[in-house]
Amino acid sequence: MDWDTWKEFYFKICKEFNFSYEKDKQARDILEKYVVIPITIIEKLIHNKKIVVCGAGPSLETKLHKLKHDEMIIASDGATIPLLENDIVPDIIVTDLDGKIDDIINAEKMGSKVIVHAHGDNIAEIEKYCNEFIFMAGTTQVEPKELVINVGGFTDGDRAVYLAEHFKAEQISMIGMDFGIKIGKYSFTKNRDVKIKKLRWASFLIDHLKEKSSIPIIKR
Fold first, then answer.
1. In a 3-state reduction of DSSP, which class is residue 53?
2. I want to staple 76 with a disulfide (CB 3.0 to 4.6 A). Which of 124, 148, 155, 156 is the partner?
3. DSSP string over 91-131
4. Please, are residues 220 and 175 in contact by the beta-carbon 8 Å criterion?
5. Could you tell me the CATH number of the domain that includes residue 113?
6. Domains contained in the chain, number
7. What is the pLDDT along the chain (220 residues), one digit of tens a residue?
8. Alpha carbon distance 209, 190 (integer Å)
9. Range of the domain at 16
10. How far apart are CA 219 and CA 119, in angstroms?
């Protein structure tokens, strides 16, 4: 998704959650200094592949058996934990650094590629943790730069779906992507009401992408 299309959604999100456009740009510029791999590496992992996005919703653990050996796995932040606990190393981890960083670092050591998302509320985490990563790409929710791209999406989960669509996956399946009022224990949410509002946006954005994209996007 290009910026001109995404910004319509972005500024509505900013208004609802009182986000700062200027701080989001600042976070993007700080993150760019830490990016160590070109996004083309991520593109090669996704393009024309069958992708499964694992969200951190309450149904995730009951559906891990539905993962298939020929699929590329993109984990949404906290979903990394149950995946590793079941000896599954995600190919890609999408995170804004509000989960358990040690697990993400360990997954990267086992082969995961990490995509860190910059926004105005995680500047401190970017500066604290991003030096820990070896294979790290970056995303932003404002205008993209050469090393920090904007694929669309708001939460880690729906952004992972947008990432897979952006790089033209063959098919995108979703597990653990739950948009109800029950919050998964791996979401590590600090404010339940805000989390529910974010999940509503995530659901809306995925439905929008389904309508616009020619790529099959399905929930298992």
1. strand
2. 156
3. SEEEE-S-S-HHHHHHHHHTT-EEEEEE-TT-HHHHHHHGG
4. yes
5. 3.90.1480
6. 1
7. 889 999 999 999 999 999 999 999 999 999 999 998 888 899 999 999 999 999 999 999 899 988 988 899 999 999 999 999 999 999 999 999 998 999 999 999 999 999 999 999 999 999 999 999 998 999 999 999 999 999 999 999 999 999 999 999 999 999 999 987 766 676 666 677 888 999 999 999 999 999 999 999 999 8
8. 28
9. 3-219
10. 28
The CA-CA-CA angle for residues 161, 173, 83, to 5°, reads 85
Residue 177 CA to residue 57 CA, distance in Å, equals 6
Token representation of residue 69: 């050996």
E strand segments, the chain: 50-54, 72-76, 92-95, 113-118, 136-140, 148-149, 171-175, 217-219
Neighbouring C-beta atoms of residue 67, cutoff 10 Å: 16
Q: Identify any residues that bridge with 218 across adjacent strands, giving them in sequence order.
A: 173
pTM beyond cutoff 0.90: yes
